[in-house]
Amino acid sequence: MADAALRVSGLTRRFGGVVAVNDVTLEVAGNAVHAVIGPNGAGKSTLANLLSGDLRPSAGTIVFDGTDISRLPADRRSRMGIGRSYQKTNVFREFTALENCRLAAQSRDPHPFNWFRDALSYRGILEGAERALATVGLKARMAVPAGHLSHGEQRQLEIAMCLATRPRVLILDEPLAGMGTEESAAMVDLLRAIAADHAVLLVEHDMDAVFALARVLTVMVNGVVLDTGDPQKVRANPAVQSAYLGRPEDHA
Amino acid sequence: MREPPNITRVLLLLGLASLALFPLTGSTFYIQLLTKIMIMAIFAMSLDLIVGYTGLVSLGHSAFFGFAGYVLALTAPRYEAVSLWLTLPVSMAATGILALAIGVLVLRTAGIYFIMVTLAFAQMLYYLFHDTKLGGGSDGIYLHARPSLAIGDISLLNLANHAHFYYLVLAFLLAVYFLLRQVLASPFGRVLVGIKANEARVRALGFQVFNYKLGAFVLAGALAGLAGYLAACQFGFVNPEILSWHYSGVVLMMLILGGMGRLYGAVIGAFAFVLVQELFSYQDIFGEYAKRWQLAMGGFIVLVVLLLPRGLADLMERAGRRPESESANG
Predict the structure, then answer these.
(1) What CATH class has A1-81+168-252?
(2) Signed CA dihedral, A220, A226, A232, A235: sign only
(3) Contact list, A126 vs chain B (CB under 8 Å)
(4) Which CATH number fits domain B6-321: 1.10.3470, 1.10.287, 3.40.50, 1.20.120?
(5) How many Cβ atoms sit within 10 Å of the Cβ of residue B276?
(6) I need a surface site. Which of A26, A41, A83, B149 has the fewest CB within 10 A?
């Protein structure tokens, strides 16, 4: 999994007259975190949606493993190995944490026509789900309905569901959003562990986390890539500083 | 798949025992009425699979109910009893194929558009049979003999006998209930429930949502076909009314009344709907107003929806949670 996993070139998405993502070119490579930062409205979430297939691009290509996936639907991309988590927590609130991950794991081994066998009797799928929950530290909470988990736990569950689909690339949209200090620290450790054997595209507002994790940093402003490369070099770029880092941080 | 809570299970078993013993009373009128209700319960359970579990609200489910009846009527020779072993699978398979063809088209839409196109397809079928000679036009077709149920030359049940037919329908009711329970517990069923909760998330997890919806639509169509086949057997004729959107509306109301997303809710809804309808049209009690039973029925449904938004089944479940309150007779 070392080589460039995702090659994005000239990626553009228009909403009516607004160009949310404008001619973005980047590479998400190897077992490392590639962070994308930028002020609100910079097009980061739109970029995540374009990569996962939740949105179709207006122009440009996304190549994964030598295949052009820019027109493929989200479920195809997921099966090819692109997993994602959402900025707004997007779990099955009525299902237990375990069932959330079990369903995610089932997507790799779906048995759609085995109508006469119980879903819970597939040991391998259950074990995969439990492993994902253990990785994020939610094993003890697996019987709790997702809607009853704390906000931080729901964010962890998002990651666990993503891991249960055994992705090669993870697209994580603000996994630290709304988390307390301790929870954030735990999440940073988790993301570091995940990045040891996955390519991770991390959209994040939390600068401490970004600089702690990222091997490559991309700064977006108004849909355009302002700079991309080594985090320290990007940080030193005056254009980046005036456009984003120099200003007081803009959370929401 | 949610297991019925304990007290609910006891009440359901009591209900089943009463149904099993009822023909001993020998009341032909009520045996026929209960047979009709059980057929509607099968119809309602089939709709629950797509409405209550998958989240696809269809107003065209009567298309499958009615079509299966027409398949039986059109394939049966005029005055000879046909074999149930042959005609039932043929009717259900033909209905399943119809559901596949309609499903491929309508499942590209969602929400209010899905409601409208399912309705449109059912109405197309209605007018096809109503306005052409294909199925006897608006008069429909008579079935002069009920199908036979035999192994070799040994007749297992005489379906012209009301009690025998009653037990056949009861057996199908149980079979459909347990079949759907099992399907909902399978990996396929788990995905359907996920689609209802959050379709986009299921797709993002890598499932081909369309195929799962189509599978559910075809199964629901074939089971509605079973109900329609049995109804055609019971009444001895088919006419375009069984395809009309009123029928789709009635079965949807049964689901709402009983409680969606619980198979036994569909059964309770079918019983409640037909029995309350019978009650309100009973002249000895309601006199002149009995003719306007629809008015009382409408009021009853509004009341249930306002007081019990999760249906009558919820009443039983609440009684189960608080054993001191007993107000559950479905």
Answers:
(1) alpha beta
(2) negative
(3) none
(4) 1.10.3470
(5) 17
(6) A41
